[in-house]
Specification:
The complex is a heterotrimer of chains A (359), B (296) and C (361).
Chain A lengths: L3 E8 L10 E10 L4 E5 L6 H9 L6 E6 L2 E2 L5 H4 L1 E4 L11 H11 L4 H14 L15 H13 L6 E5 L7 H18 L2 E6 L2 H7 L2 E6 L2 E6 L1 H6 L4 H6 L6 E8 L2 E4 L2 E3 L10 E7 L5 E3 L6 E11 L4 E7 L2 E7 L11 E5 L6 E4 L2 E2 L3
Parallel strand pairs in A: 3-8, 3-9, 6-7, 7-8
Antiparallel strand pairs in A: 1-2, 1-4, 4-5, 9-10, 11-12, 11-14, 12-13, 14-20, 15-19, 16-17, 16-19, 17-18, 20-21
Chain B lengths: L10 H28 L1 E3 L5 E3 L3 H8 L1 H31 L5 H11 L6 H11 L6 H8 L10 H29 L3 H9 L4 H12 L1 H16 L3 H7 L10 H11 L3 H35 L3
Antiparallel strand pairs in B: 1-2
Helix pairs in contact in B: 1-13, 2-13, 3-7, 3-10, 5-11, 7-10, 7-11, 10-13, 12-13
Chain C lengths: L2 E10 L2 E9 L6 E5 L6 H9 L6 E6 L2 E2 L10 E4 L11 H12 L4 H11 L15 H15 L3 E5 L7 H17 L3 E6 L2 H7 L2 E6 L2 E7 H6 L4 H6 L6 E7 L3 E4 L4 E3 L13 E5 L4 E2 L7 E12 L3 E8 L2 E8 L9 E6 L5 E3 L5 E3 L9
Parallel strand pairs in C: 3-8, 3-9, 6-7, 7-8
Antiparallel strand pairs in C: 1-2, 1-4, 4-5, 9-10, 11-12, 11-14, 12-13, 14-20, 15-19, 16-17, 16-19, 17-18, 20-21
Helix pairs in contact in C: 2-3, 2-4, 3-4
The chains are: A alpha+beta (359), B mainly alpha (296), C alpha+beta (361).
Chain lengths: 359, 296, 361
Amino acid sequence: MARIDLDLAHAYRPNPREDSDYALLPLTMSFRDGGAYALLGPSGCGKTTMLNIMSGLLVPSQGTVKFDGVDVTHATPQQRNIAQVFQFPVIYDTMTVAENLAFPLRNRKVPEDQIKKRVGEIAEMLDMSGQLNHRAAGLAADAKQKISLGRGLVRPDVSAVLFDEPLTVIDPHLKWQLRRKLKQIHHELKLTLIYVTHDQVEALTFAEEVVVMTRGRAVQTGSADALFERPRHTFVGHFIGSPGMNFLPATATGGSLRVAGRPLVLPPERAMPDGELKLGVRPEYVVKTAPGDPAALPFTVTMVQDIGTHWMLTARIGEHTLKARLNPAARAPQVGEEVWLQVMGPHTCLYLNDELVDV
Amino acid sequence: MSATTKPVNQKAWLLVLPVIICVAFSAILPLMTVVNYSVQDIISPERRVFVGTEWFASVMRDEELHAALWRQLTFSLAVLAVEIPLGIALALSMPAQGWKASMVLVLVALSLLIPWNVVGTIWQIYGRADIGLLGAMLQKMGFDYSYTGNATHAWVTVLMMDVWHWTPLVALLCYAGLRSIPDAYYQAARIDGASKFAVFRYIQLPKMRGVLMIAVLLRFMDSFMIYTEPFVLTGGGPGNATTFLSQYLTQKAVGQFDLGPAAAFSLIYFLIILLLCFILYNWMQRVGTQEKEGVE
Amino acid sequence: MQLSLDHISKKVGAEQWLYDMSLAPRSGEVTVLLGATQAGKTSLMRIMAGLDVPTQGKVLVNDADVTGTPVRERNVAMVYQQFINYPSLRVADNIASPLKLRGEKDIDQKVRSLAARLHIDMFLDRYPAELSGGQQQRVALARALAKGAPLMLLDEPLVNLDYKLREELREELTQLFAAGDSTVIYATTEPGEALLLGGYTAVMDGGELLQYGPTAEVFHSPQSLRVARAFSDPPMNLMAALPAAQGLQLTGGPALALKLPDAPAQRLASFTAGVRGSALRVTARDGDVALAGKVELAEISGSDTFVHVATAVGELVAQLTGVHYFDLGAPITLYLDPAQVYVFDANGALLLAPNRKGGPA
């Protein structure tokens, strides 16, 4: 278990000049000992690069990586004592499950009886005690991933476990079970866990803190709550939430706000700079209100979808569209109908140049 | 109540017809001729007598044939024993990517491109005690090397020649197999602290199983049918120390014009190869599927 | 065109890949094939396309038997999960290929308009290998649309894409399907995707076709336990129950006031009560039944929180809107409105489904 400190950048070329030359723009980040973190972002954002730098499979072009204050930038993964679980299960085909789990310990020349004990413990934790003598090659994908994970956990002094999109090949209904298992393991073993994914559900359910990344930049780090309620950047607002935050362009002049040519009242306690802003409100917080509500705007309904647990409304005002999540018990509007939807509320965020305007 | 399955495309047969005709003329008709000869005593081109299975019986009893068969088997097994591990070792040491990889691939494949009788000739000269590089060097070192006089020397030379000629094939097949292993396996092994040998034993070798199967099958079949190289090198000598099965057959058929027994023997030869390959293949397939099903 | 599968089944060697099923996807609409991997979705699609022949049964197009007709002679477009494009042709040529085969005029113009619809008009001169995964899949989609076939098959086309990209493309696909008049068959493993695509859904499990109907209807009225299991995310909470005076008695828990349909033979049998995660609440309302338990796990997914609670009737998962924090092991009471309970009989068939108020237009 270790605390990991990063103070680095990684460029594709030896003399980087512009932002696009960097795979990872200069950043400073700390992962506390025993914490569960997720690196979340679209393909190509640099999350796997960051993970490989932390594990030692890649050396950053500039900067340092420290484990518990010790500089390990040039140390191998073995020396750092980390474990990594990859996108598709990596197991030793010729060995049984028990032999697979014992492999890292055998390489370290740990006594056999200790190995047996430890393998038993880890198998118990992963619900694989009954399969210890089966050939690993014949098992299903989720069992194989558990073995990959087990190989990492079997070392008692492992410093951190790094996951690179580990649930990619797993069936949706098995993903639930594996996610739960990971959370339980974190709770029991209190290891430093770092999880890379493009799937926000995985990231938010797994991690205590999520690092949202795009194009080599860490845009915001925070808890699920903070990322959902107060995204500091429009990218975070868009990326987190399914569907993401709605953005409506707004013009602010002298304390009054106009959205799509219509006035919108601003609650008195909120201050606001002048200029072209973006009004961000999540579909979950858009509510249907009475016509003429000063915090609402009129929209024309273009699509109504029954998502089982709620209605998803798509509506437009002028040339802008908005999505709203409505209560399943309420009557759903018809396509073409005009509805007034409240967009200004306590959960609404305002953005200037894509950055959150702090109130 | 079965579904009507119309034949997919009748026109396709027309396209294949020319090939069928060519194959018929160049392979099937000659094969039928051989079968024809094998049941007749051909005293002269005009006089033939039907003898049924007599040739087959006499061929099976032939002592010289047994000896040649024995020599052949030993040779093939020796070839496999040397070429497979050597090929794997070579594949492991070849670079994985970049311009070096292309260069090494070309160099390695060179010996495969040489016509087989030229290979025999190269080694013939190479092994000569007076002007051959190998022969002369061994003589200088005090070794009384003679592949024409000493049976063991002849064997070793023929073996080395085959190894020199064909190991690159095994190496190339294994190289292809190695390239298909995803990087993550090596990374995981590094993280698990595995030694180089452990990586070889638990990752590379198992993943190469498919290509190794092909390599073993190919090398076995080819070495079992070997003719040109040893014939050019030693002519089957000294005595009949390096007279392998195909050469024995040729001696019988062409040399002695015993077409009947030769034809019978050809068929038996053909069947032996088929049988051995069938056994080998099935055994490997079974081992392969056992792995897949996770049988303990 | 009306595609119809008449009692088809598929057996390969000793394995039964598809059990006897009949399906007539609504013409001009989207039919979602929903099921886990290995449920038989791809096998079924291959038979629909003409790539495979069923072991038994007939495939009919507009009442004409096309069972043995190979795919080349049928007018079908297919999109795969692996972004399949012609690697040696530029994007423009890729999209144009079906148009060229048909000998159409004005190819350039049509290619441009299709590319614009799929937002790849700036890549027309590039090769597929130079594009990102999402863009490659758009090229494959454009090519499928260019073919203008009356039947379009999509086999989990978004599964290899990023989460957010999947959302965006799915929206675009919904609009594209609505604008066209082809019959679209879309295979997926995610119940959420089926709900977002709308249309009709065919639920498959283990090679069997379990239910076919309008998506919302299949979701709200699953005919059997297997359908309920296959068509929920998070998994439906299932509890053992026995018939009681007022309705249903949960094994190990409270009674539920329900009006079960009259079926004297089932009076003594055991039932399964099912309730969706979203029907469980942490604040009580009138008429709610309480289920006490301990928090095992709380998962926050941004807009919802999933709480796993160990109760006397089993382990339940509740889906709560918004972000809620819970301490592991803390006591918690879940509230349930009996009107939102599904009841399945001993064989798994549906007996009672919750009433839905306020259907879509």
